[in-house]
Each structure stands twice: as C-alpha cells, then as structure tokens.
Amino acid sequence: QVHVKKICCIGAGYVGGPTMTVIAEKCPHITVTIVDVNPHRIAAWNSDDLPIYEPGLEDIVKAHRGTNLFFSTDIDKAIIEADMIFVSVNTPTKTQGLGKGFAADLKYVEACTRRIAAVAQSHKIVVEKSTVPCRTASSMRYILEANARPGLRFDILSSPEFLAEGSAIRDLHDPDRVLIGNLDTPEGHAAAQALVEVYANWVDRSKVVTTGLWSSELSKLAANAFLAQRISSINAMSAICEATGADVDEVAHAVGLDTRIGSKFLKASIGFGGSCFQKDLSNLVYLCHSLHLPEVATYWKSVLDMNDFQKRRFAQRVVASMFSTLTDKKITLFGFAFKNNTGDTRESPAITVAKYFREERANITIYDPKVPDRQVWLDLTEPGVVDDEIELRKTVSIKHDAYEAAEGADAIVICTDWEEFKNLDYERIYKGMGKPAFVFDGRLILDEKALKKIGFRVETIGRSGDNVGQEYRF
Ligand code: NAD
Ligand code: UDX
C-alpha cells in the first residue's frame, strides 16, 4: 500500500486550487504542488491577489503556501516527484467537430495523461478529478500504458469533486461524501485505499465512499443532472405561479417539507448558471445519444430547454411590463456572477438577459460586487456579432457602487442573489430613478411589500406581480 507523501495536481483552477489547498491544510505530512500551463494563473496563486475568490480560501493559502503547498509551472518536475497525481483540468463542451455543443472536450485531459506517461519514472496513482464522460478512465489507462516506459505501473482512480463555488472551502472541509472509484483489482483497491487515507485525515471514514470506476464517473454526471433538474422543476412551477397567483416560495416550502423531496435546491430563479450544470448535462445528453438511448437523452435535454425558457421568459416579462419597449431606457443589472459569493460568470444567466436587453436597444448598467470589469466586457463581446468593446461601451456601462449604478435607471433587475442587495437603501435608490421605477427580482430576495410601499413597481419570479392576468409570452 502506498503512503502518499507527495501530491501533484495538474490544473490550478476553481477545483484544483481550493481542493489541494484544503488537502495541504489538513495533511501537513503531505507536500502538495499545483501546476498549470497558464503562467499568469500560477503567478496569481503566488501573489496577494489570488486568481479566484472563495470565502476563507485566501487565509488557508497564505498559511500553507511555501510550507507544504506550492504553485508552479514546472509540470514535469511535479509529476516526477509525486506519488499521486490529480488531473483537475477543464473539460469544456466541444465547440466544433463531432458532438459540438454537447460532447465534453477531452483534449486537456488527454494532454495531461500523455505528459504523465512521457515523464513518469516510477509508479503513479492518477486520480481523475475533472468531470469526464463515463469510461474516460479506460482511455487514460490505455494512453498511459501505450506511452510509458515498459514495466511502469499506473493505477487510475476516479474521484469527482462535488464542491459548489462560493462555498468551496465549507464543502471541502465538511463534504456530504467523498467518492472514490477504482478498478476491481487488488492494485485498484490498494490505490483507492491510499486516497481514502488522505481524506481520512479530516473526513469521517463513513463519508468516504468507494465504488467501481464507471459508477464513480457516472455518479458525478448524475448528481449534477439531478440538481439541475430540481431547479428546472421549480422554475417550471414558477411560470404556473405567475399565471395563477400562487407564490413559488410557498409552493417550494410546502413541497420541500416532504422528507422524500427535501427543501434544498428549490429556489426559483432566472435560471441556473455556472460552469458545470449546462456542460455536464450536455455531456450526459451526448452520452445517451452515443449509447443509442434517444428517449433518455430527450429527458435530460428538457432540463436544459426549461432553463433557456426561464431566462427568455424573464426577459420577456421585463419588456412586457415596461410597456413593451426598452429602447433607450436605462436598465440596471444588480449582479453579473452566476450566483452569490463568487466572481465567476461562466454561463451566468445575467449574460443571456443582458443580451436580450441589448437586442431591445436598452442602455445597460451593471453592478456586481466581485466580477472584474474585464470579465464583463469579455462576456458581452461576441465574435462576429459585437466584437468591439468600444461599440459595446456605447450602450453598456459598469459601476462599482450600487447607488451610482441605479442613478437615473428606469428599472433594476436582480440577476444574482448577493446578500448586499437585500440591505440597500431602496428609498434613496427610488428617489434617483426614472418613474415609474421598476424592480424585477429574478432571485426572490427582496421584500416586495416594502418596495411597493416606497412606490416601486415590482415583478418577482414566481409571483404574479402587477401584471397578473397579462400574457407574457411572445
Ligand atoms: P478551470 O478552467 O478553472 O481550471 C482548469 C485549469 O487547468 C486551467 O487553469 C488550465 O490552464 C489548466 N490546464 C488545462 N490544460 C492543462 C494541461 N495540459 N496542463 C496543465 N494545466 C492545464 O476549471 P475548473 O472549474 O477548476 O474545473 C476543472 C474540472 O473540474 C472540470 O472538469 C469541471 O467540470 C470539474 N468541476 C468543476 C467544478 C466547479 O465548481 N468549477 C466543480 C466540480 C467539478
Ligand atoms: C454545482 C453543484 O452544486 C456542485 O455540486 C458541482 O460540484 C458543481 O456544480 P455550482 O455550479 O458551483 O455547483 O453552484 P450551485 O450552487 O449548484 O448553483 C448553480 C446554479 O443554480 C447557480 O446559478 C444558482 O444560482 C442556481 N440555483 C441553485 C438556483 O437557481 N436555485 C437553487 O435552488 C440552487
């Protein structure tokens, strides 16, 4: 049995960074080196300005960096020295070729695998941390064995990561479960045991679950599909609520009290975003098609379709409520990140909504407490459509203060559930806005009654609002 002393993690992103930082924190006897091809990212990890924001992350990085936690671009050295190598690179959706728009692009996983094969000089346990299609471990094994020096052994494990952004450190400190998949061979079980021992330094052993490799890989896609499905289900209900006068929060509460259903992850919204749900569901849909299971593919695809519908429906409600035109009106978006407590905007519903508003010729102002300006410009620039930031700046502006952003606005649109939006002085905001002053709450976080008392017209996802009985659909 291997006693892990040196870990290398390839990929210093949202998963590799926090996951390995927590391993370093909880296992002072293990040296953890996180490597990446992107020198800017590594430089940022080694600076005072970390490349990602996660509550609690910075303190732990600073406490362990240079002791048993290292960030480096010297990938080969880290591979050679490690007993265990985590592959935590991105697995985006393919944008061209076979399966484009659905299949996972495995080029980065393959590049790492080939690098490991090329430079490894001793036995390695290779852990798939990236989210990958079912049976990817088998391809990795094949590539390793075909390219490594003769006689060298590799054991492959699957250990998908279940952390959510914004709560990564909490999730890593106290996970619901840690999943480890291995081949059903004595070597496979021994490798899994080596990883169990790493996690057992802080996670109760009852929560460290071992399964077969393929179950582990598929469980990650399944978990994200189930989670996304819950959001699409409640969002589908929100449309019925708006048309009938039922309140989606009340429905979610009533439904969630059934212990078989549970209350978590039933918050209606303008749609789910984030780097995982869209990508992993698409990946699952593609997998189903590849396995000649079109009905299963259609079933999971409908979760994505509902999400697109929700974003479109919300934008339509804004247009319809504002007398069917947004031309030259000032619309202020509160929030641009895909959820609170993160500066990440990947697949953020705010991007889609902003694009709908631009098509309606609105002037858009954006305020988000964490998203960097350059990211907003990047997200709203579309090659071939609006590929010019100067052109974009004519109708879009970014502010760093909520009050300044709302000044002169005709409407405020809540896109992200940031806590600070609940506690703003809306009397003050109202005074500075054009009248009638609208608030569209896409996250159900504001006190609708209090806002109406101030004078706002309020439209909330999953509630009928002032337009009850009106038709919102195109
Ligand atoms: P990311 O884009 O933030 O980070 C990936 C990093 O890998 C990048 O810094 C990139 O430069 C690096 N990289 C790519 N190819 C490389 C190579 N050949 N050698 C060295 N470095 C290389 O991605 P992420 O959000 O951390 O996601 C990583 C994986 O984890 C994905 O498969 C994702 O689906 C999965 N995942 C993500 C989350 C999440 O919340 N973001 C949660 C669970 C699982
Ligand atoms: C998700 C999974 O939760 C995590 O387990 C997996 O490892 C990665 O993908 P993440 O995308 O970081 O994590 O955030 P999550 O909290 O799941 O939120 C995803 C999106 O759903 C966000 O846009 C969020 O605002 C939205 N959401 C979430 C809702 O609209 N309603 C809810 O009830 C919960």
Low-pLDDT regions? none
| Tally of alpha and pi helices | 18
Number of strands: 14
Under the CATH scheme, which architecture of the largest domain would be assigned?
3-Layer(aba) Sandwich
Provide the list of bound ligands, each named once: nicotinamide-adenine-dinucleotide, uridine-5'-diphosphate-xylopyranose
CATH topology of the largest domain: Rossmann fold
Polypeptide structure, described:
This protein is α/β, with parallel strands linked by helices and 474 residues long. The chain folds into two domains: 198 residues, NAD(P)-binding Rossmann-like Domain (Rossmann fold); 269 residues, 3-Layer(aba) Sandwich (Rossmann fold). Helix content is 43%, strand content 14%. It has 18 helices and 14 strands. The strands form two sheets. It has an eight-stranded mixed β-sheet, with helices on both faces. Helix 1 crosses helix 3, helix 5 runs parallel beside helix 6 and helix 11 packs antiparallel against helix 12. The longest helix is centred in the middle third of the chain and has 32 residues. It is globular and about 75 Å long. The model has no long low-confidence stretch (mean pLDDT 95). The site of uridine-5'-diphosphate-xylopyranose has 19 residues, from helix 9. Its EC number is 1.1.1.22. It catalyses: UDP-alpha-D-glucose + 2 NAD(+) + H2O = UDP-alpha-D-glucuronate + 2 NADH + 3 H(+). One of its GO terms (molecular function) is UDP-glucose 6-dehydrogenase activity. Pfam families: UDPG_MGDP_dh, UDPG_MGDP_dh_C, UDPG_MGDP_dh_N. Pathway: Nucleotide-sugar biosynthesis; UDP-alpha-D-glucuronate biosynthesis; UDP-alpha-D-glucuronate from UDP-alpha-D-glucose: step 1/1.
